[in-house]
């Protein structure tokens, strides 16, 4: 594909997406009155829609281009970027600069839409600053702008694979703030819809951005088969994620009675475009990757981007048709029925963020174990049991009735906290996932082209990994998080927002995993400590958890009282008594995983001493045999 032809395709795709967006906005009617908002005027309405489309497309180019550079384009040994990866990284950097500009322009536009004022009026400082402080979406756009600026700074001069991966991580984070404050974050079922969109938006962006990077690579000559195979695996995975998550969030926002209407029609068009792109993926594989099919797929995804931007303008039918209660507004569901053992065990509400992660982690682990056993290698069954048990705990405390009722009372919340922060991580690190990956993944089979095994090794030795795996950092994150979160306003604020609650749970799991990895992990850490030092870490941290529980039990004020009074659960009882019960749970249950760590550490210490003794014995036997041989040689000379 020539340069002029590629530019014509991109321009055509952008124009087609914009045309669909403007058509929907022009025929949408009143999209502000049903929500009780004032109309900011056509200039603000159309301007914000166009800016949103440009930002979405540029974000996809940035994230997808970085994914293409890191995991699709072939790299080089030693972590340097190849010519293809460097070109994709530069394309991503240019897209990120455009993303930054669009996000900066979107801040006043979103503030104008939220305030119901023309954007020209909102640009006045005396109007803009109070509006920015009082509304959530402009703050989200500011976060997006910061992320886009960081991505631009990282991606433009990037010459190393790790730098590209770091930029991709920041870009992925920059895609999420708008999800956290969008339509999916409001009303009944917003917990399910928001979790689904946390998967949907990065997958769609990676697919579209990588698809744009592929024709850009075609301009420079024939594409290696390795690149085509990697891209096809990426696009098929993204298609499956986008289709599943989009169906879930769409049903939550429309409900069956809202499928007939303008919102349902646009959603149907989005579904048809996605199905068409999926069919092109299948045809692209059968026809040996024709360029025309790639161009058609790009046009369909550009139209889909325009349709997605249009859905952010329309009013979801669930809002006026199904008004949310206070509990549904805060949690996404109601908790009118009191908690019982039967409900804690039997009433499951899958957490679409943690449940898929657990399923993927378990499946990948079992497939790796099967690969080892098929080639005759041994993998300890105890590690398999530990890994499965760890993810089972995560699944239960996030998706069962325990996870459903945990936001309602402090005591149940503390149960999930301790399970995610202490019980699950100890079991997960004993599973040795990194060691298993390094043994199961094949080395780069394409000469100097690194593969998944080299990627894992590079990330394991990255400076950021060494920093967080430092014993002091791991211990501070593990023990200090309790005090910072619960003895400040952070906990009360985090519980009011679903995204913050999910981030809190992810932090519990990650900080617990880091500490357990440093102390008793089966995988080797970047900074290997002697067993005595690790034992000292455990004993140094234990008092902090005990003190935390004691402080909670003796505290005279309710933590996050505003949040719990918003819920106003009739069966919750005395909030202060429940908080003291939570402190007792933290004090009592925190000792169990610590004891498990001590026992596991002592067992590892004993086994390590046995291995050292066996090596010493073998070395000693060799020295003794050499000494006897020397004596025999001297005796022979004398004879």
List the helices and strands and how they pair.
Elements: H1 3-26, H2 42-72, H3 83-115, H4 119-122, H5 125-134, H6 137-155, H7 161-174, H8 177-181, H9 190-218, H10 225-254, H11 262-286, H12 291-311, H13 318-321, H14 326-330, H15 341-346, H16 354-374, H17 381-399, H18 401-405, H19 410-430, H20 433-440, H21 452-460, H22 463-468, H23 471-486, H24 490-495, H25 498-520, H26 531-554, H27 561-567, H28 575-589, H29 591-638
Description:
The protein is mainly α. 76% of the residues lie in helices and 0% in strands. The chain contains 29 helices and no strands. The chain has helices at residues 3-26, 42-72, 83-115, 119-122, 125-134, 137-155, 161-174, 177-181, 190-218, 225-254, 262-286, 291-311, 318-321, 326-330, 341-346, 354-374, 381-399, 401-405, 410-430, 433-440, 452-460, 463-468, 471-486, 490-495, 498-520, 531-554, 561-567, 575-589, 591-638. Helix 6 runs antiparallel to helix 7 (161-174) and helix 9 (190-218) runs antiparallel to helix 10 (225-254). The longest helix has 48 residues, at 591-638. The protein is globular. The model has no long low-confidence stretch (mean pLDDT 87).
Structural class: mainly alpha
| Helical stretch tally | 29
DSSP summary, beta strand count: 0
Helical amount:
over 70%
Radius of gyration: 28 Å
Taking the alpha carbons of the first and last residues, their distance comes to: 86 Å
Question: Main beta sheet, described?
Answer: none
- Classify the beta-strand content into a percent band: under 5%
Average pLDDT confidence is 87
List segments where confidence is low: pLDDT < 50 over at least 5 consecutive residues: none
Shape: globular
Order of helices and strands: HHHHHHHHHHHHHHHHHHHHHHHHHHHHH
